[in-house]
């Protein structure tokens, strides 16, 4: 029968005839045959299966083998023995190599026929050994896939025992690493992907059946991809294994990998780069999840060198993967994480900028829903990066044009995305006993390192930095080539805005701005420092401006004469009043106001007046008795609401009232501004022009209401301001020499604010000189701080005239002021005598903790307030200003209270606590309650921001690209910040490695650095407010 069949399949008869005869041969398998005949048929069918020259003969061989093997099982068991199988696997068959997949096809067919025979167990044992040998020989994808199919159908052939099973998994991983596609056509690539999927599927089955093999297999996988052998590049087919690793193992595996001291940086870099290459593997799942997890893990242990190198090496490759729909989701996820976390330099983002426009246009042309969705995500990412790295319009304009029709995320969302993505914001995977060297706190703000009792400077600098419009003006100045103090302040502001450090050391600025009479490393008065700083900046700008004009006008003069002329001009300009915005310095524009002092002789009624500029108002504490004497000149309304006080006040005084303030005179030291116990006397005499019994009674009733609301023992900032502006009778030893009377006469001295500053700085005079002990004692009285303050401003002309005469374009005053003055004036009073109430929002509070100006600690509360307020108060303040104070007295809730309640509920994290290096979120309630909780911690310097109709800082169209609305930095500043950010990341990495090496032997306790409202914020000295926040008593003595 075998001879007939052999002759038939090789004959030239028609194929149809051959199939009919073959069918009869197969049917005759049921008839009894001798052992020799069976063996001949098995040999022929084996030869046809393995060596058949055409598909027909191979098909005939399979049909005959299956039929005769089924009906003559014992004979086939004897034929299909160990020797045959071993020979096929090791030597092949004829010209057929043992590594041909056809050999495994034949073996699998034979195993099916003898599954019920005892000899199959012997074959299973043989195949367990041979399978391990085959994978160790690095079979090609077709053979490996066929082997895995056989082992999947017959799991009994898998190597048994932990050692052999583990070796099989590890060798199979290495075999996959050697896979390469045999062609580039789609059909060939699809076949290749299916073969790889077959192999990875077997590994998944083994890992599931024997979980102990998973971790060693992954270790082998990492060893393969981290190898530094340049002659061998592992196949991206390894990506097919990632989807079979349980996601629950991410945390354990990443922590083990990133903290293993045996893993060198070069190996980790190589492994991460190759994992990123896996993003090009189609159908692989969770590759991006593991890549991002590893990136975060490395950031958590501060291995920033690896992250920088990998990002710069692979960012363009990841971006290019967005062109391929199959791998686009994973590539976009990795791209987003890499860009958003690389926040210390624009280098990575700028590598992909040239390719963005073409990709955007491609997505638009697709018009597919999936492409549109990805385009939206890409647009959001691009907006975040352009917002963070502003100042490159030549690079970004084409991109903005391409995405102009797509939605743009709002600023708050961009800030949130950036704050959550930075490397320094990743949660640490180190053991909890290690103190984490983090970057910026969750607030996104940067602290200032205390250089040795320099908290007085740190608190002031943070308050100035949070003065948004002032900060933006400083950052926008072009000061290249200038070594001025303003340049150093710009440098400091730039680092506070852009550094990755948790805290910055302002050593250069401290040395440049420290007053000469300040002893280094000793506590000083922050108010005195603030006035000195503002005065220095003011005078410096005038000198530089005069020097610039002198060089232009007198280009022939030598350098010495130019300088002398410049100084002379600066002195003249400092003495002359400013009449135009172009002559005003930045300090004048931001903090400058004007006071008018009027002294009226009570004998002849002649009046002398004097106008002086101020940058801050020093408010003395008024004795309780003096509050009652304010009645004839002051109307006040206060309301207590939710633990803070909202106040509006109206001061009624003469048209000629004003005073003198010498706050720009800083050479005399802090004692120059001290009240020194002097108490003002207030006139209630009937001959006072604007005082009548009826007015007195009326205002006295209003004052009684105010005292019931505020409380007799808790003065407010408004009380102190009223006391400051109230008229004073000069009598007795303090009589006024009247030139008209030519003798000393009783006189009335009044002060009026005639020009309001953009930022109103109020200093509470808490330190009075004690002549007995020769020290300056501190007044610890609590003062309620109104969130909204209305400053009475009396202008001799209309508000518009004042604007055109003395204010810059950035400080615009509403034309509504004249109407406001009319509404607020008392009945029967002349229009010119009624002040306009200018609304201000509380921006910053500098707090002194301690009982003496020579000791203690300073820290500050602050928030970002622009001309519109923290939550768009610009519109609300207009409505507020139009409400009559008399109506407020009868209202249950004043408009100010409504505004404050809205602000406090809508923006729970708008307030920040700056305590040297530490910056935390806080609330306005904490600001108000600080003294009631910690009696030695008292508000000292207050910053209020005027609310303008034109809200905020005037900017150009590039404002949408600014970080926090700030202008782009000069190139040299950005380069310096980028360089320092890289240095900082290297420092973090070195510290983390040192800690990791010491972790096993060192024992330490972790103390949180967060601020708890139940503990005072801290102290620079033993007389401070008690300290807290994780510092020991010894640590508080000097820091």
UniProtKB/TrEMBL annotation:
Which Gene3D superfamilies does the entry link to?
A: Cysteine proteinases
PROSITE patterns of this UniProt entry?
USP_1, USP_2, USP_3
- Residues of the USP domain: 446-947
GO BP term, pick one: ubiquitin-dependent protein catabolic process
Provide this UniProt record's keywords sorted from A to Z: Hydrolase
Matching entries from InterPro entries are given as: Papain-like_cys_pep_sf (IPR038765), Peptidase_C19 (IPR050164), Peptidase_C19_UCH (IPR001394), USP (IPR028889), USP38 (IPR033840), Usp38-like_N (IPR049407), USP_CS (IPR018200)
One annotated GO molecular function? cysteine-type deubiquitinase activity
| Cellular-component GO terms for this entry | cytosol; nucleus
- Its protein name is Ubiquitin carboxyl-terminal hydrolase 38
Tell me the organism.
Apteryx mantelli (North Island brown kiwi)
């Amino acid at each position: 029968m075998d001879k007939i069949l052999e002759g038939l399949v090789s004959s030239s008869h028609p194929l149809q005839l051959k199939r009919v005869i073959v069918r009869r041969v197969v049917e005759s398998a049921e008839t009894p045959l001798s052992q020799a005949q069976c063996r001949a048929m098995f040999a022929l069918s084996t030869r046809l299966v393995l060596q058949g020259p055409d598909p027909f003969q191979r098909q005939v061989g399979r049909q005959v083998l299956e039929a005769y093997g089924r009906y003559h099982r014992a004979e086939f068991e004897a034929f299909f023995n160990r020797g045959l199988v071993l020979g096929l696997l090791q030597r092949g068959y004829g010209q057929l190599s043992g590594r041909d997949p056809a050999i495994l096809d034949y073996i699998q067919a034979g195993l099916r026929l003898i599954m019920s025979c005892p000899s199959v167990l012997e074959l299973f044992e043989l195949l367990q050994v041979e399978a391990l040998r085959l994978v160790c020989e690095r079979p090609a994808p077709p053979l490996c896939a066929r082997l895995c199919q056989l082992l999947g159908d017959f799991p009994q052939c898998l190597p048994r025992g932990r050692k052999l099973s583990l070796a099989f998994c590890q060798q199979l991983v290495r075999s996959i690493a050697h896979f390469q596609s045999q062609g580039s056509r789609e059909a060939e690539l699809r076949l290749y992907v299916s073969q790889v999927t077959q192999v990875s599927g077997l590994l998944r089955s083994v890992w599931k059946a024997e979980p102990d093999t998973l971790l060693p297999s992954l270790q082998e996988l990492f060893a393969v991809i981290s190898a530094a052998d340049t002659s061998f590049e592992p196949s991206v087919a390894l990506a097919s294994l990632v989807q079979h690793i349980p996601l629950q193992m991410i945390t354990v595996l990443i922590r083990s990998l990133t903290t293993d001291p045996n893993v060198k940086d070069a190996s980790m870099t190589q492994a991460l780069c190759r994992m990123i290459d896996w993003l090009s593997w189609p159908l692989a799942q969770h590759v991006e999840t593991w890549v991002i997890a590893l990136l975060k893990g490395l950031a958590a242990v501060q291995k920033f060198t690896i992250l920088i190198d990998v990002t710069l090496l692979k960012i363009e490759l990841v971006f290019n993967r967005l062109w391929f729909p199959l791998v686009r989701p994973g590539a976009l996820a990795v791209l987003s994480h890499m860009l958003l976390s690389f926040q210390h330099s624009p280098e990575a983002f700028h590598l992909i900028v040239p390719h963005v426009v073409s990709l955007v246009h491609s997505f638009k042309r697709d018009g597919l829903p999936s492409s549109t969705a990805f385009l939206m995500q890409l647009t959001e990412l691009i907006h975040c990066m352009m917002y963070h790295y502003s100042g490159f319009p030549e690079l970004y304009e084409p991109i903005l044009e391409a995405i102009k029709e797509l939605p743009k995320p709002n600023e708050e969302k961009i800030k949130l995305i950036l704050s959550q993505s930075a490397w320094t914001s990743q949660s640490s995977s180190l053991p909890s006993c290690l103190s984490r060297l983090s970057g910026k706190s969750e607030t996104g703000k940067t602290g200032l390192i205390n250089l040795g009792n320099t908290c007085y400077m740190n608190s002031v600098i943070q308050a100035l930095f949070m003065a948004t419009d002032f900060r933006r003006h400083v950052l926008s100045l072009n000061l290249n080539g200038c070594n001025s103090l303003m340049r150093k302040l710009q440098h400091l502001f730039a680092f506070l805005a852009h550094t990755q450090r948790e805290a910055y050391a302002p050593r250069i600025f401290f040395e440049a701005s420290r007053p000469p009479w300040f002893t280094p490393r000793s506590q000083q008065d922050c108010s005195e420092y603030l006035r000195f700083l503002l005065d220095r900046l003011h005078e410096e700008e005038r000198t530089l401006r005069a020097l610039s004009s002198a060089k232009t006008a007198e280009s022939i003069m030598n350098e010495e004469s130019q300088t002398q002329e410049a100084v002379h001009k600066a002195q003249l300009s400092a003495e002359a009043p400013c009449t135009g915005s172009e002559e005003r310095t930045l300090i004048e524009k931001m903090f400058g106001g004007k006071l008018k002092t009027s002294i009226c002789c009570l004998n002849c009624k002649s009046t002398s007046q004097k106008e002086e500029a101020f940058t801050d108002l020093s408010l003395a504490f008024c004795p309780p008795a003096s509050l009652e004497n304010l009645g004839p000149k002051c109307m006040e309304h206060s309301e207590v609401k939710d633990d803070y006080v909202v106040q509006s006040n109206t001061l009624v005084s003469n048209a000629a009232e004003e005073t003198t303030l010498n706050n720009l005179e800083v050479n005399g030291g802090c004692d120059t501004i001290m009240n020194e116990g002097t108490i003002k006397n207030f006139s209630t005499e009937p001959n006072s022009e604007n005082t009548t019994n009826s007015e007195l009674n009326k205002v006295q009733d209003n004052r009684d209401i105010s005292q019931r609301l505020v409380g007799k023992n808790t003065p407010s900032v408004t009380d102190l301001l009223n006391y400051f502006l109230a008229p004073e009778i000069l009598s007795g030893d303090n009589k006024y020499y009247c030139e008209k009377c030519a003798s000393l006469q009783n006189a009335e001295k009044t002060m009026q604010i005639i020009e309001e500053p953009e930022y109103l700085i109020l200093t509470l005079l808490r330190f009075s000189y004690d002549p007995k002990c020769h020290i300056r004692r501190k007044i610890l009285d609590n003062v309620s701080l109104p969130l909204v303050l209305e400053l009475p401003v009396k202008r001799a002309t209309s508000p518009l005239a004042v604007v055109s005469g003395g204010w810059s374009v950035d400080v615009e005053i509403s034309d509504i002021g004249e109407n406001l003055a009319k509404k607020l004036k008392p009945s029967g009073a002349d229009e010119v005598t009624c002040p306009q109430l200018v609304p201000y929002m509380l921006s910053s509070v500098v707090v002194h903790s301690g009982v003496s100006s020579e000791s203690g600690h300073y820290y500050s509360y602050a928030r970002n307030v622009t001309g519109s307020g923290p939550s768009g108060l610009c519109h609300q303040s207009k409505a507020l200003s139009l409400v009559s104070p008399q109506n407020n007295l009868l209202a249950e809730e004043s408009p100010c209270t409504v505004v404050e309640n809205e602000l406090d509920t809508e923006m729970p994290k708008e307030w920040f606590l700056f305590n040297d290096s530490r910056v935390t979120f806080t609330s306005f309630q904490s600001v108000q309650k600080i003294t009631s909780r910690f009696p030695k911690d008292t508000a000292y310097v207050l910053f209020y921001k005027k609310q303008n109709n034109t809200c905020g800082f005037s900017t150009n169209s590039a404002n949408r690209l600014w970080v926090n609305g700030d202008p782009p930095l000069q190139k040299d500043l950005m380069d310096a910040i980028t360089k320092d950010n890289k240095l900082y990341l290297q420092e973090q990495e070195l510290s983390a490695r040192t800690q990791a090496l010491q972790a096993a032997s060192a024992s330490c306790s972790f103390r949180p650095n967060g601020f708890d409202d139940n503990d005072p914020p801290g102290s620079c000295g033993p007389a401070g407010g008690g300290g807290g926040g994780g510092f020991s008593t010894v640590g508080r003595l000097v820091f």
